[in-house]
Specification:
Layout lengths: L9 E6 L8 H14 L3 E4 L17 H16 L3 E6 L10 H16 L4 E5 L9 H7 L2 H19 L5 E4 L5 H5 L7 H8 L5 E4 L11 H11 L4 E4 L29 E4 L9 H12 L6 H12 L12 H10 L8 H14 L8 H19 L6 H29 L22 H8 E3 L5 E3 L5
Parallel strand pairs: 1-2, 1-8, 2-3, 3-4, 4-5, 5-6, 6-7, 7-8
Antiparallel strand pairs: 9-10
Length: 455
């Protein structure tokens, strides 16, 4: 199958989350997925590679450089772009010429390893300027453009085909509206940043439910180029209780023509990303329509072999139900949504009216709970270890709900209080974070209310 490696449109995966970076073996597996799916770009920017962000001035030691060289070579073998990113924004002194020398030294090491594509990221940094920088440049935007343009020219002299990417300090619509980075930041970047340099954008929000053509076209007039989408749809580094294995969604096929690329920054835990990567690939190579749900169902069928167990086979229908429970940030999958609505509607009624509905619901809850338990038998242990703590929490909730419905359905218990014997205060839904969550109630409209019954 023809790849997109020689096209200008960037399509692929960003390793750009907060948390433990992926292993070499996981990256090699990712490259296989990408090559088979027609994706063309791997973007190396794990926030917790210390030399990518926290101590960005330091060169890699020999063993670290060797590992990066292996990644670059493996990408080349699979006709994938390897893009290396540095994030100097935490403490760079824009007006100090030695800082540009530090950046050149870092990129020079990567050039020697065979890297041809680079990026400077200025996201998630303090929104304040050093007095010397402000005196010389006047704004964050001008200071960053000065450094990026200079490094771009230097890199192109040594590697003429180099692709160069830039992440602004306000990288979504909400940040820009709040004037993060200063007044007229994006307009200044659009005017001063060299036109060959791509600019990242995450959409209206950091994690955007939708990214529309109208949104990016409006942004294009400010940036004076098509934006490059850094898509956090499947990112989970902000919520350790969840992961997202739903489909690439909320983006129309027409978006492909309105941007310079689509790069997905997915779950921190690599084993969760099969569906995300495969549905992105299907979206990029697709035609004039996109059915996200059908793409999800197809990808789940392809993912099922990873769930081979030491016992009897797991059913695809049960895997789909589990995946629907961990679908996308803003929505559950159809079957999980139906299960929740069934439970919610039943619990709002008098138990005397439940009848056979309670039996049916308990059967559904038990089915999902049993599937969660059977994941302990997975032969793919990294997948199990990634799933275990999150799915254990789901099991506990399913167990409590099923027991509660069983108790209330029994004769004489309709008005009685239920005292579970295994879900005890403090040990269940306990801890400081959980108690803080119960103080304030986040309403569906985004407003906050005080929860009076906190205990």
């Amino acid at each position: 199958m023809a790849t997109q490696a020689t096209t200008n449109f960037l399509a692929g995966v960003i390793e750009g989350f907060y948390g433990p970076p992926w292993t070499q073996a996981e990256r090699f597996e990712l490259f296989d997925w990408m090559a088979r799916g027609g994706l063309n770009t791997y973007f190396y920017a794990p926030k917790d590679d210390l030399k990518q962000r926290a101590i960005w001035r330091e060169l890699y030691v020999a063993t670290e450089a060797q590992a990066l060289g292996q990644l670059i070579q493996t990408c080349r073998q699979r006709e994938l772009r390897f893009v290396y990113a540095l994030s100097p924004g935490l403490d760079i002194r824009y007006s100090d010429a030695t800082e540009l020398d530090n950046l050149k030294r870092r990129f020079e090491q990567m050039l020697a390893l065979g890297c041809q594509n680079f990026s400077l990221l200025f996201d998630d940094i303090p929104d304040r300027m050093d007095p010397a920088d402000r005196q010389r440049f006047g704004s964050f935007a001008s200071a960053q453009c000065h450094v990026v343009n200079a490094l771009f020219r230097w890199t192109r002299e040594r590697c003429p085909p180099a692709r160069f990417l830039f992440c602004p300090t306000p990288y979504c619509g909400r940040m820009a509206a709040a004037q993060l980075g200063g007044e007229n930041y994006l307009a200044t970047v659009g005017r001063e940043l060299l036109p060959e340099i791509d600019i990242f954008w995450t959409g209206p929000e950091i994690i955007s439910r939708e990214i529309t053509v109208a949104h990016v076209q409006e942004l294009q007039t400010v940036l004076r180029r098509k934006p490059l989408i850094w898509d956090n749809l499947h990112a989970n580094d902000y919520d350790g209780r969840r992961f997202f294995c739903g489909p690439y969604s909320g983006r129309s096929p027409e978006l492909r023509g309105a941007v310079s690329g689509l790069l997905l920054n997915p779950n921190t835990e690599f084993p969760f990303n099969f569906v995300a990567v495969h549905t992105l690939a299907a979206f990029v190579r697709g035609g004039g329509s996109w059915d996200a749900r059908q793409a999800y169902l197809a990808a789940m069928g392809e993912w099922l072999p990873y769930f081979a167990t030491s016992g009897s086979p797991l059913a695809l229908a049960d895997l789909i139900l589990l995946g629907d429970c961990y679908y996308l940030p803003y929505e559950d999958g159809a079957e999980a949504k139906a299960l929740f609505e069934h439970a919610r509607d039943l619990l709002t009624r008098n138990p005397a009216t439940w009848g056979g509905e309670a039996v049916t619901l308990r059967q559904h809850l038990a089915r999902l709970r049993e599937f969660c338990f059977r994941l302990t038998e997975l032969r793919h242990r990294p997948l199990f270890y990634a799933l275990n703590r999150r799915v254990w929490e789901l099991r506990e909730e399913l167990d409590l709900l099923e027991r509660y419905i069983a108790f209330k359905s029994a004769p004489g218990n309709q008005n009685a209080d239920y005292h579970p014997d295994s879900h005890l205060p403090g040990t269940y839904r306990g801890g400081m974070a959980a108690r803080l969550q119960r103080l304030l109630l986040l309403r569906a409209d985004g407003t906050i209310a005080v929860e009076l019954e906190c205990e």
